[in-house]
Amino acid sequence: MTIPPISQPAVAPRLSIVVLPFANRGNDPDQQYFADGITEDLTADLSRIAGMFVISRNTAFTYKDKRVDTKQIGRELGVRYILEGSVRRSSNQIRVNAQPDPEPRRKRRAQKI
C-alpha cells in the first residue's frame, strides 16, 4: 500500500504564521532557554487568536540554528507570515528584537517590540 504525499495548499491561509526560534544574542550561552521561552510564549499567544493558523513549536524548532530562506520556509510550511528575532539579556535589562516577515516574498522590515 502506498501512502500519497501530503499536498501543500497553493495559497497559504490568510492568517498563518510560524514563529522561528529566537536567537540568543547575549554573552551567556546559558540564556538560550530564555530565547526559547520567548519563542514558545509568542507561539502560544498567537495560537489563541481566533482564525489564526500557527505552526507548532516543535515544527518551528526544526529550523533552529539553520540558515534557510524565508520564502522556502513559507512554502514548506504553507504559511503567509514568518516571525523571527533575537533576545539579549544583560544584568537586569532585556532587549527583544522581532522581525516580522509579511509575505516572505516581499522585502523584510525590522521592528522593535
Structure description:
It contains three helices and six strands. It is globular. By secondary structure, it is an alpha/beta fold. Helix content is 25%, strand content 27%. The chain has helices at 32-47, 57-60, 70-77; strands spanning 16-19, 23-24, 53-54, 81-90, 93-102, 111-112. It has one domain (17-105): Rossmann fold. Strands 1, 2, 3, 4, 5 and 6 form a six-stranded mixed sheet that branches.
Count of helical stretches: 3
Uncertain ranges: none
Distance N terminus to C terminus?
51 Å
**Rough shape?**
globular
In CATH, what is the homologous superfamily? ABC-type transport auxiliary lipoprotein component
The chain-level structural class is alpha/beta
Strand content: 25-35%
Labels describing this entry:
6-stranded mixed beta sheet, single chain, globular, Rossmann fold, alpha/beta, 113 residues
Topology:
Blueprint: E1 16-19, E2 23-24, H1 32-47, E3 53-54, H2 57-60, H3 70-77, E4 81-90, E5 93-102, E6 111-112
Parallel strand pairs: 1-3, 1-4, 2-4
Antiparallel strand pairs: 4-5, 5-6
